[in-house]
Specification:
Elements lengths: L1 H16 L3 E4 L7 E3 L1 H11 L1 H26 L8 H11 L1 H16 L3 E4 L1 H20 L8
Helix pairs in contact: 1-3, 1-6, 2-3, 3-4, 3-5
Length: 145
């Protein structure tokens, strides 16, 4: 399990740059690839406060939780930090919600075309793996909040 955390640390940046969606305004035009990083870049240009919140929830919280769990698993950090890692895990759940929200909003507009790309599956797998590792490590609650 501790080595799986190291795999997550290597793959999270790949997932951030990978295309989550391909979106276009009309079916005749080519589709633009949207990743977490390109979405954040666009957000930083329009709404800095929201971009900061999304950056914390989608990048920093899950990565910090994964680093913390790796440190605990390799006995480089005390297990007493698990409650703090649990709090980070709850913050990291926002990234799944945000990706789902992007898909719903884009499809709800109705004038464009949206296709799910491989990065969404990679990102989802990483988040689910991180949740599983957290659960096995005793930091994820077994009942909903």
């Amino acid at each position: 399990m501790k080595y799986l955390n190291l795999v997550l640390l290597a793959l999270y940046p790949v997932a951030w740059a990978a295309p989550l969606l391909r979106a276009g305004l009309l079916p005749l035009f080519s589709l633009s690839e949207i990743s977490i990083l390109t979405g954040l870049q666009a957000l930083w240009k329009t709404d800095i406060a929201l971009a900061l919140v999304v950056t914390v929830f989608a990048l920093f919280a899950p990565y910090a939780k994964t680093i913390g769990l790796a440190l605990v698993h390799f006995d480089l950090m005390s297990r007493r930090t698990l409650p703090a890692l649990q709090a980070l895990g709850k913050l990291a759940m926002a990234d799944v919600f945000l990706v789902a929200l992007y898909v719903v909003v884009a499809k709800g507009i109705g004038i464009g075309r949206v296709e799910v790309a491989w990065g969404l599956y990679l990102f989802t797998a990483l988040v689910l793996t991180s949740l599983w590792i957290g659960w096995r490590s005793g930091i994820e609650d077994s009942h909903p909040v």
